[in-house]
Amino acid sequence: MQKVLIVEDSKVVQQILRHLASQHLNVDIDFAWSLKESKALLKSNRYTLALVDLTLPDAMDAEVVQLTLSQNVPTVVLTSKIDEYSRQQMLEMGVVDYVIKDNRDSYLYAIKLVSRLLRNQGCKALIADDSMISRAVMRQMLEKQLFTVFEAQDGEQALTMLKAEQEIKLLLTDYAMPTMDGFELVKAVRNFRGRDDLAIVGLSGAGTHGLSAKFIKYGANDFLMKPFMNEEFHCRVMQTMEQLNLIADIKDYAHRDYLTGLYNRRYFCQQMDKLLKTGIQHSCLALLDLDLFKEINDKYGHLGGDSILTQVAQLLTDSFSDSLVSRVGGEEFAVLLAEQDIKKAKATFDDFRRKFAENMFSIDEHKLHCTVSIGIARCEFPTLSEVMRHADKALYQAKAQGRNSAVGACTKSNQILEECTT
Ligand SMILES: Nc1nc2c(ncn2[C@@H]2O[C@H](COP(=O)(O)OP(=O)(O)OP(=O)(O)O)[C@@H](O)[C@H]2O)c(=O)[nH]1
Prior knowledge:
Blueprint: E1 3-7, H1 11-24, E2 28-32, H2 35-44, E3 49-53, H3 63-70, E4 75-79, H4 84-93, E5 97-100, H5 104-120, E6 124-128, H6 132-144, E7 148-152, H7 155-164, E8 168-174, H8 182-190, E9 199-205, H9 211-218, E10 222-226, H10 230-255, H11 265-278, E11 284-290, H12 293-319, E12 324-327, E13 332-337, H13 342-358, E14 361-363, E15 366-368, E16 372-378, H14 384-400, E17 406-410, E18 415-418
Parallel strand pairs: 1-2, 1-3, 3-4, 4-5, 6-7, 6-8, 8-9, 9-10, 16-17
Antiparallel strand pairs: 11-13, 11-16, 12-13, 14-15, 17-18
The structure holds guanosine-5'-triphosphate.
């Protein structure tokens, strides 16, 4: 679990930071007022990141910053003033960035900066540059931003690494490199990694006119002229990653059902279409429909019904953590199970159906049981609508035979394979 230390001696500012942190950061946070308190906390905790006030009553000369950095905690500084001397002082100490606290907006900026940095943790970045010194400088800066850093000394090596490692989300590439230059690299990479999947920042030395526009036209997200200022590098990388993260968030929202957080019907159908094209004959599709759900809505109201749907989604996620699980309709769910044998798939869903019937659902202080009917079909047809039609038919039979049952469809002969009741 990520953990953040925030050190601020002003009561009002700490209150603002606490409020903003509760809204924007989903991590453990410790707050300290002084250097003394920070020392005690750092002794017994490991922090992913620190946001610290530059001057404190018991540390007037940035001692708290020296303390967090000496413990290898990447540190963002809050400061009420910035002159060239203190800027240099902070950069030499190796802080990630500094935020000038002159209005409420700057606190929001600081907390959002912490949030963005935390999101970088575990994110992989690749530096492609033939200069060892440049690579070392950028590695240091990226590691301060919590990236896991890889290096390549030319374009070809970078391309090979990007092909092998889909998890790399940021590429910093120089223009002039042996074997394959930055343009060729960007062009080649964009054949298999889109702008919304991999962020690319092009780099080049001064005097190379027109490179920035060319880099961007070939597919880079941004461009930096060497030598760059620490802050410029930091801002460009953060902004580029923020765009990538925003796109990822928007995609995720578009793929998920608002109420339950499960994948929605559209995403499910897209994935199934893709999978059916590549062949998923070894899998079975189950459609699960809650029994007499209307009665729950009638008795406990629509919100009560919604609460049950959320609990059902959790039960499905817990029970089929390795499967594609989706809410495909109002009270209808789908699970793609990696099981070829329909009898075995039916046995799995019978177990789930029993567990479901025994589960105690709750709506406010009320406790209740629910049941579910399940229709299962093998994914042995080329189109989703055919597979769904067979699963639907089996589901219809499960309802017709008294609900709370699972039925497997023998899809080849178009017959229902067998019946199963409790
Ligand atoms: N609370 C809530 N109810 C929903 C939602 N979507 C659909 N429903 C309700 O689900 C109920 C489905 O009712 P029916 O199709 O008659 O089916 P049933 O009562 O479950 O009966 P059987 O399927 O025959 O067992 C309707 O009352 C819908 O209003 C939703 O998002 N939230």
